[in-house]
Amino acid sequence: MIKRRARDNQLQKNKQLLLKLTVSFHQPLHHVKEGWIVQPLDHFNQQNSNTFPQFPNLVYGAVASSAPVKAKLDFSEYNNFPNLVYGAVASSAPVKAKLDFSEYNNVVGLSLLNEAVGGSEKCLSKVREAFAAVKEALMSGNINQVASDFGCCQIPKDPYDQIELMQSLADIFMGAVQYNEEGVLMSINELCGIMTNSSQEYQDEMEAYNRLVKLSQIYRFTSKEPCLDISYEKSMKDLMDTSVHAGRRGERQWTYQTCTEFGFYQTCEDATCPFSGMLTLQDQTKLCTTLFGISQHSLPARIAFTNTYFGGDNPHTHSILYVNGGIDPWKTLSVVQDGTEEGEEAQTIFIKDTAHCADMSSRRVTDRSSLTKARQEIEKHVANWLKTAAQEKLEKGTS
Question: Is 97 within 8 Å of 312 (Cβ atoms)?
């Protein structure tokens, strides 16, 4: 729920930025219309002619040259490139598929340690302590008390409901780190403030546990959720809903991609994870079989194919600018250093102490200097691409 809200918030900001970009091309806002492109349902099966309508994200995601974009946004002929895409800014782009993405929560833990963004050793320690206390309470049979403390909609008697609870609590921290200072419900600084605040209210052996309870209450209040839904059965029912108006359509599609192409399972079995070892790879990949009939044993081969086909973290690309933030968990699957093994050009920008896609958000007076500088570098790269592309177009026209 928390991750979904964070993604929705980011999508809304992306749409707002797209409108601003439109204005920068001297196009009145009332001319901006929502359009769709016909997309093949299966890019890897030429025998499958089925298609679906997709909202294009061309201008925002890349320097594009398709006819619909040119017509709608009135690009000049010099900016109408001969190929579909001339250059792209890959912001926080994980280009390597990985089944067990334990590094995600490792970076979350390191970010909770980072004093530059409000973290501390005490914060990480209290988080570990709190999750250990929740697990201990569940294992010792205090299930009703845990359900009451965290305002659960159901009593987590089923082990899978207990895992749902642990995942929901972990999502608070994972979402805060991934979208820190980008308008999410709480930043790392605020979150760690609650977990480490010195007060007489929680001075006992259950201090960390009670602080996590308080944090959960704040999230539910801010989200206007009457209770914390931890029903595994309900989650499965929602994800199996394939109707047009299903409430979790995007989540089902994303889950299918993780099963067939990406992996990206953010597990917690590694000792570096600050949460609960109950978040296992086995339980997460079980969804593939339950929802789509895809064998868990087939996932490694599927992910290996993705990396072989697209190049993994050593992609054979040109005119791609890879931008990553220092506390973004996804950076470990992206390109963060210039150059590749074959010597092909790979340009990168690393933004210290910033989160996922921070460079794509609107400018604010509170932006870090590293982020301001990165945006300037990105603008220079895009300006150079436009200049070079226009020159190439002119030369081809006169040859």
Answer: yes
3-state secondary structure of 43: coil
Q: Which residues have C-beta within 8 Å of that of residue 253, sequence separation ≥ 6?
A: none
Given pLDDT bands bounded at 50, 70 and 90, which one contains residue 349? very high
Mind listing the domains of the chain with CATH numbers?
A: 2-90+358-398 (no CATH), 98-303 (1.20.120.980)
Q: Are 18 and 59 in contact (CB under 8 A)?
A: yes
Question: In whole angstroms, what is the distance from residue 318 CA to residue 356 CA?
Answer: 23
Q: What percent of the chain has a predicted confidence (pLDDT) above 70?
A: 78
Strand ranges for 197-346 from DSSP E: 263-265, 320-325
What letter would DSSP give residue 228?
B
The structure tokens 């409430």 sit at 247
Residues 73/64, Cβ–Cβ less than 8 Å: no
Distance (Å, whole) CA 372 – CA 257: 34
Query: Tens digits of per-residue pLDDT, 116-148?
Result: 999 999 999 999 999 999 999 999 999 999 999
Percent of the chain having pLDDT more than 90?
Answer: 57
Rounded Cα gap, residues 365 and 296, in angstroms: 47
CA distances (Å), origin 215, targets 92, 177, 195, 218, 308:
28, 15, 8, 5, 43
- CA 127, CA 352: separation in Å to the nearest integer? 24
User: Going along the chain, which residue ranges are E strands?
Assistant: 37-40, 51-54, 62-64, 85-91, 98-100, 263-265, 320-325, 347-351
What residue type is 324 in one-letter code?
N
Average pLDDT over residues 342-349: 69
Tell me what pLDDT residue 56 has: 54
Phi-psi category of residue 118: left, alpha or beta, with phi > 0 → left and psi -120 to 50 → alpha: left
More confident residue, 55 or 58: 55
